[in-house]
């Protein structure tokens, strides 16, 4: 074969073909890499992306609109009591008789689920005292709180469990969601609504407040649990045990709870509340070490505030005889004043 050197024109054509070949090779290599590492992103799949908004309400209007009638002389603003947005969410996907759980951040994110029709349940997953129960079934999924005991506590309502106030709990529910395979992400907006509400409890003294060193209270007749699907409560009640802050105005506590028993957001009270009783108590430790207890019937105030609000009792008296009894050298930070909270430990 006779060797013929390339002339200028043929050399340009060869170099052009070589450049095109190298570019094609690079493109093919890039495509193989994308397909290897981002196959699902660039293919049809269920791409549901939850977009969460949070409703930060601490009480719900029933007969009183506290946000409108908030008194200026109260030392704290109404908005100070609004709960914080939670750090993350638990999502449960219910499909026929099966369910699957996953975690998302507070803004939401991609929710893994198969193609088909599902029901979706969301709640925040950063609680400490909440106990979730029967979440395998959407109809029975509920939340309660831990048992709390107090030495020498006189039972306010017979056979009620004494508990710690629950953490802040939010929830959202999607009754029916059709998950389809798509090329592009599909947004799913949800609103995380409160399932726990707060009662601002204020104890005010007519006299003798200067003798009070510590205080704690109990609220009996409150709902024992809440159902995650729609936020309703059943007829089971419990007694919340809580601590109070003592200041120049009296004793104050912000107590979170599941609200009134037998209450539905859509239907209101589901049973007759005429004879429903709520009892509030206050126990104070005086600076001389003596303890005094007071009990108040707050049924009327609670019936008109089934989901948070303000409870105030007044005209509490500590007599000079009680306040000045003894030598006055007692240390109010004594053992036995703290409550015990039942926190089950894992066995393995």
Map the helices and strands.
Elements (H helix, E strand, L loop, with lengths): L7 H30 L7 E2 L1 E7 L11 H4 L18 E8 L2 E8 L2 E3 L5 E9 L5 E4 L8 E4 L2 E2 L11 E3 L6 E10 L1 E2 L3 E9 L2 E11 L4 E12 L2 E2 L9 E7 L1 E3 L2 E8 L5 E2 L3 E2 L9 E8 L4 E7 L1 H5 L5 E9 L2 H4 L16 E2 L7
Parallel strand pairs: 2-13, 10-17, 14-24
Antiparallel strand pairs: 1-12, 2-5, 3-4, 3-6, 6-11, 7-8, 8-16, 9-25, 11-13, 14-19, 15-17, 15-22, 18-19, 20-21, 22-23
Quick structural overview:
This protein has 348 residues and is mainly beta. It has 4 helices and 25 strands.
Summarize the amount of helix as a percent range.
Answer: 10-25%
What is the first-to-last residue Cα distance?
83 Å
* SSE succession: HEEHEEEEEEEEEEEEEEEEEEEEEHEHE
Q: Strands of the largest sheet, in order across it?
A: 4-3-6-11-13-2-5
Determine the structural class based on helices, strands and strand pairing: mainly beta
The oligomeric state is single chain
Which percent range describes the beta-strand content? 35-45%
Number of helices: 4
Task: Specify the overall morphology.
Answer: elongated
The total count of strands amounts to 25
Radius of gyration: 31 Å
pLDDT < 50 runs, ≥5 residues: 30-37, 344-348
Mean pLDDT: 87
Largest sheet descriptor: 7 strands, mixed
Domains (count): 1
């Amino acid at each position: 074969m006779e060797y013929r050197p390339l002339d200028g024109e043929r050399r340009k054509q060869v170099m052009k073909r070589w450049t095109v070949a190298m570019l094609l090779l690079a493109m093919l290599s890039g495509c193989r890499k994308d397909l290897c590492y981002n196959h699902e992103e660039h293919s049809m799949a269920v791409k549901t992306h939850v977009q969460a908004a949070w409703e930060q309400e601490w009480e719900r209007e029933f007969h009183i609109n506290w946000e409108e009638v908030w008194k200026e002389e109260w030392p704290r603003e109404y908005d100070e009591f609004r709960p914080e947005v939670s750090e993350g969410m638990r999502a449960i996907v219910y499909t026929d008789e099966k369910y699957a759980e996953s975690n998302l951040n507070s803004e939401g994110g991609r929710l893994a689920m198969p193609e088909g029709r599902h029901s979706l349940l969301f709640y925040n997953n950063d609680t400490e005292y909440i106990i979730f129960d029967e979440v395998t079934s959407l109809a029975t999924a509920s939340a309660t709180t831990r048992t709390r005991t107090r030495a020498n506590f006189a039972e306010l309502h017979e056979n009620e469990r004494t508990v710690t106030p629950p953490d802040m709990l939010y929830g959202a529910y999607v009754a029916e969601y059709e998950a389809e395979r798509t090329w592009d992400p599909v947004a799913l907006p949800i609103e995380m609504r409160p399932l726990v509400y707060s009662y601002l409890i204020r104890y005010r003294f007519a006299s003798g407040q200067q003798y009070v060193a510590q205080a704690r209270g109990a609220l009996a007749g409150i709902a024992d649990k809440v159902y995650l699907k729609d936020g309703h409560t059943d007829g089971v009640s419990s007694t919340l045990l809580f601590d109070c802050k003592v200041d120049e105005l009296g004793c104050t506590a912000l107590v979170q709870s599941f609200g009134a028993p037998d209450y539905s957001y859509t239907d209101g009270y589901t049973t007759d509340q005429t004879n429903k009783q709520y009892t509030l108590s206050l126990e104070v430790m005086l600076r001389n070490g003596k303890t005094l207890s007071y009990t108040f019937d707050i049924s009327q105030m609670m019936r008109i505030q089934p989901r948070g609000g303000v409870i105030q009792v007044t005209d509490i008296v500590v007599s000079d005889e009680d306040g000045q009894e003894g030598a006055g050298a007692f240390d109010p930070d004594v053992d036995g004043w703290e409550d015990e909270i039942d926190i089950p430990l894992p066995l393995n």
